[in-house]
Amino acid sequence: MKKTKDENKEKQILDAAKSIFQSKGMDGARMQEIADKAGINKAMLHYYYRSKQLLFEAVFKNAFSLLAPQLNAVLNDDASIESKVRNFTSNYISFIAEHPYLPNFIIQELNRNPEFIIKLKDNPNFLNLDKFKVQVEQEVEKGIIKPISAEQLFINIMALNIFPFVAKPLLMAFTNTDNSAYKQLIEDRKTEVADFIINSIKHT
Amino acid sequence: MKKTKDENKEKQILDAAKSIFQSKGMDGARMQEIADKAGINKAMLHYYYRSKQLLFEAVFKNAFSLLAPQLNAVLNDDASIESKVRNFTSNYISFIAEHPYLPNFIIQELNRNPEFIIKLKDNPNFLNLDKFKVQVEQEVEKGIIKPISAEQLFINIMALNIFPFVAKPLLMAFTNTDNSAYKQLIEDRKTEVADFIINSIKHT
DNA sequence: ACATGGTTTAACCAAATGGTTAACAAATTT
DNA sequence: AAATTTGTTAACCATTTGGTTAAACCATGT
């Protein structure tokens, strides 16, 4: 029962790789460390995934495909902007709290290798702002929200939600909080951020 | 005239190191590459800065000491919150546009090595939120701005200003912009972000 | 001129690293 | 059950990498 064609082993390797790559990045990760974490021989890594690069890409795509659906929720949904902002903010913060390395990993590796995103954009269900854009324009026209471009609003939503995770060590130092106090700050943001955005854009 | 005690050489090395470290990070940087960029022998790096680690720390501290004064401007200044937000946003975006790798470098390396910030916090003129906190509380009490904690406001300001640089490749892909269009988006944010924040917090 | 002391270089080194190989073990096919 | 394919391992390999060394270089003080 040891040497069965193990659907699991592939996953097992991927999990170990994910953990190492996401905390140390492509350059900082060591194949030996991944092998150790997966509890297998280093040669096995190359047997299942031919090279470090390919293993990395598998991890990266996997990570990205976790993030994408979360973002699509803000965009391709028929609720009002306000309701979408509230839902997204709360959901997203919960989501990241369970995958703390995710945003930083993706951002970091995309900066290291910006051409990488080209491959991702080919994916047919890659994030698309078109619908969101129309909706923002409509609500602006109807006077529900103040004039703002969809792109800027989208960037603001992303920034307010993601940045506190990406810059955690820096912000912990600046706000002089320890881990648990910072966690509370983040928890508060589930409603705080939505209010901040709505306050800013809602017509009075 | 070649072999004089060259105050300059040290700087020359630091500049090369800065450029390599900031674009590739500690793990991705190679001593040889830094030497090449500085136009010197690899052994010289070790002559001036004993090790990669020390050279890196010199670069990091240097980078951080560029950033800090910018942030202090938001905090330890007597202008109103509104005026500070407007000034900071415009200034900071200009500043980063000239040091595009800076925020990402600092954030990335602090995530790689969170203990690193402890050394920085020892510095007596390390960023301190106390004054800002008092000011926010006062303006809230006077009814100038809506109730918000200084920490959350500070995080929001940081997020809205810094994130677009840190996540540039990701946001370029999502907003489907090329380099020059993205540059324009950023340029617009010099006033856009300030308005967004002020709209949100100013009492009507 | 030459001794001195900081500066610079080419050659070298040991450790680490991604990757390969060849042999072995366990399933699967025939 | 023999043959073949698939999974697994230890040992090995070439290259890269941070770092060292010993000798050369050169400006300056004596």
Automatic annotation (TrEMBL), chains A, B:
DNA-binding segment(s): 30-49
The HTH tetR-type domain is annotated at: 7-67
- Which Pfam families is this protein grouped with? TetR_N
GO molecular function ontology, one term from the record: DNA binding
Q: Which InterPro entries does the entry link to?
A: Homeodomain-like_sf, HTH-type_TetR-like_transc_reg, HTH_TetR, Tet_transcr_reg_TetR-rel_C_sf
* Keywords associated with the record: DNA-binding
Listed PANTHER family: HTH-TYPE TRANSCRIPTIONAL REPRESSOR SCO4008 (PTHR30328:SF54), TRANSCRIPTIONAL REPRESSOR (PTHR30328)
Question: What is the protein's name according to its record?
Answer: TetR family transcriptional regulator
Query: What organism is listed for this UniProt entry?
Result: Winogradskyella eximia
